Amino acid sequence: MRSLARVVTILGALLCMAACQAAIQEQTQKKAEVRYFNTTVDRQRILISTGDLSNPHEKLGGLSYSEPLTADTIDSTHINEKLRQMAISKWGNQVDAILYVKSTPSADATMITASGVAVRVIGDCNFCRHNYTMPTD
Q1: Which of 47, 73, 129, 134 has the smallest set of CB atoms within 10 Å of its CB?
Q2: b/e burial code for range 95-126 (CB count within 10 A of at least 16 → b)
Q3: What distance, in Å, lies between the first and last C-alpha atoms of the chain?
């Protein structure tokens, strides 16, 4: 009888451990989905502009990078994505737009430098990221 109780206790503990593992795995999966959203989908909401923005905004800071000049690195899509990634790394969800975006090749045409100014819109707007929160299930 005593050994049966011991077996039942051990089986119960194993079942509890399995249930805990499943809960931890589900939580890890949810965090991965949020991370994917923040780094892939949501970054497309960052407005890119070569000029100013009519919405009231505050400057978060400047962005700039240089890299070797190639057909890929001079492409505006590549430049915009790189600036978006840099802005998210520095300011997270606070960045709503990158203004005054420009790219300039070096004098010897071996490098390209891209720059812009990250801003946070004050108040609401149709593209703002700073007020967005992930829905919870």
Answers
A1: 134
A2: bbbbbebebeeeeeeeebebbbbbbbbeeebe
A3: 45
Class of domain 46-121: alpha beta
Comparing CA positions, the residue from 79, 57, 77 lying closest to residue 130 is: 57
DSSP string, the chain: -HHHHHHHHHHHHHHHHHHHHHHHHHHHHHHHHHHHIIIIIGGGGSEE-SS--SS-EEEEEEEEEEEE--TTTTSHHHHHHHHHHHHHHHHGGG--EEEEEEEEE-TTSSEEEEEEEEEEESS--SS--TT------
Provide the mean pLDDT of the chain. Answer: 84
For the segment 102-133, what is each residue's pLDDT rounded down to a tens digit?
999 999 999 999 999 999 999 878 777 766 55
